[in-house]
Protein 1
Amino acid sequence: MAIRQKIVVFTGAGISQASGIPTFRDTDGLWKKFDAKKLASVAGFEEDPQTVLDFYNARRKNLLEVQPNHAHMMLAELEKQHDVTIITQNVDDLHERAGSSRVIHLHGELKKVTSSRNRLNPDCVKEYPLDVPIRIGDKAADGSQLRPYIVWFGEYLGPEAEQAVIQIENADIFVVIGTSLAVYPAAGLVNYAHHEIPKFLIDPGDMKGRLPEGFRHIQKTAVEGIDILMDEISKL
């Protein structure tokens, strides 16, 4: 019988791309079509809140139209043999819908809203139906305008980042899927993994010169590479 191990998986936009959720930084990514400074910053929200809400309401609605893919499902399946924690840069809920029970969202969640005065006020963070748009005039518990519970440019990561560090430091196996590790500070989390544990990175891109030390690169998409990963884990 295989030894039950603590596996920590760090996921990015590439794992949800196959489900129909666009990435941000690819050649056809969202930030090639939209101005990130206007749509993902406090200043942009203060200048034109309606446009920002329209953008996120569209993304929230899109989340109702997509489903978890094979990579999401296999990570959830992995919980049957191991203790698995997912740390994700993604703001969708596809890991949860696939069945993963321990998911840490570094950049927020589309299905939640919060205060525009204090994003991290726990009294103001709440789930909000994806089919109900956030409107101008909708108020948080502190009386401020509701906003998406998303980490915008220039904002600090929340307490989830501290939880993520603890999980990675205690991992027996560390896996990175669907991120080129270009987004900081989240990308710096890989440095907290112990240097002696098995580490894997699934990404179709050429990581030459950028692959963190000690990682085995599975140069496939998330959906293609997940079965290779499962096979490798079964041998450990």
Protein 2
Amino acid sequence: MEGIKNIIFDLGGVLTGLDGHRCIDAFDAIGCENISYYVKYHLTQDLFYDIEIGNITTLGFCDEVRRMTGKEVSNEQVIWAWNQLLTGISEERLERLLLLCNKYRLFLLSNTNDMHWQLCKDEFFAYHGHQVIDIFDQVFVSYEMHLAKPNKEIFAEVLRQANIQPAETLFIDDSQVNLDGAASLGIRGYLNKHVDDWLKMDL
């Protein structure tokens, strides 16, 4: 950690847990087995990629789910099922973030969509009167940036907007491919193999 002034956190698999089985069960429960298939086999093209990169809106996502499944499910049902992928942010993680933000500049960088982010922002990060803005200097989400990891352009944009130096920055992510993208610009990385691994780091 010598020389580190900034820490960039990924969201899924680092701060919030992910449960694909729960998401599959949720889509099955509302009769959208075709969408369950996408989740089960980690298919990111088309529907999920478009919502993650901001090519379609939440309403467009729900409309596409109805088109693909032939089911007249409500927007609320689709959003609920998709949000079942995220299991929440533990108090231990939130407490650690609140301590770290007094020592480092903290940033969030996630390949995510509006549905997942609104859930995290409104519920997961709401803790003892604190909000996400109390933890992170800036939040960078793929659906707003129209860029996604591991493309090095998204890391370059984060460095530019945050006005931080790569050599002074640590990136914590659960994907080696994403860390490699950051490393191409000189950002140091930590591979978070299990959701709470970063809690064991000497930060």
Protein 3
Amino acid sequence: MSFWEYANPVKFLKLSGSLLPYVSILAAITIIAGLSWGFFFTPDDYKQGATVKILYVHVPSAFVAINAWFMMLVASIIWLVRRHHVSALAAKAAAPIGIAMTIIGLVTGALWGQPMWGTWWEWDPKLTSFLILFLFYLGYIILWAAVEDPDTAADLTSVLCIVGSVFAVLSRYATNFWNQGLHQDASLSIDKEEHVADVFYYPLIVVMAGFVLLFVALVLLNTRSEIMKRRAGAIMVRSGI
């Protein structure tokens, strides 16, 4: 069995229909468990107080926002190289989820930053690149809506996705590229000296797993909807409606 078999819309619909209930339930359980653990069973930070618990929403949403763009990049490259419509539609399906996570990341970042930094916003390298990533998401969605021919729209948005990947990388690694800036280093790191204390780390891992599962579930759901809309449009064209 080849992975590329699922580029066939019929096989993708069958597989995604089977997976979607399980992924959705697992996502709900994991998010509820992780947030409950983090908000109710972890102490306040000695410096940040209860404000630190914003990380249980901010970090997972920012993580998904950045990595959703990389998923779109892979799907877009597959479209450009192999012309599989499911990959183009999967990239399109991921964009609304990515922009929603970006907005959540920006808002929670402001709520977290104001008491810590004394300001809602700072033109910090990481914050600025994350804001630009939001604008690329917005442009991507608008471009899909503005171009009537779906294959042309897929081509143009794929190129935009490749260009925007620069800012997805900067959003992830800006603190490594520039030493200055208010934003701290990554909350999660292989180096135990750099990531948050274990009491916050483990529930954060659970929440992040839940957000990733939620992203997968929503991408499957949205991709199914895009395939069905494409099918309905083709039927209408053939019927002369």
Protein 4
Amino acid sequence: MLTGPDLLSKVKELGDASKSDLVRSCGYVSTKKDGSERLNFSAFYEALLEAKGLSLGDNSGKGVGKGGRKLSYVATVQGNGNLLVGKAYTALLDLNPGDEFEIKLGRKQIRLVPAGGEDEE
């Protein structure tokens, strides 16, 4: 997905293209479960506004999860004993599938340290 000056120049380059073509050409497309494409107009327009120097909301959505709900920063152990860190938190940290962490156990605490990274005390 294009952002910033790249997004602005692509929009200018495409000139009078349809809105759908603009969104598609700038990379704001995802794939639905059935394999069809979904054009992400909201994300496109938000990126376009930000590229023009306008910001929506506070801190670009940091601390806000799916559906615009504020994150609680609380995790609960599930019935099967798993502790789940949700997608909203991994997105805030720009984590990707396959990223590895060392689990550091302390007294009543768990720290996740990026594999090969330094532990900040």
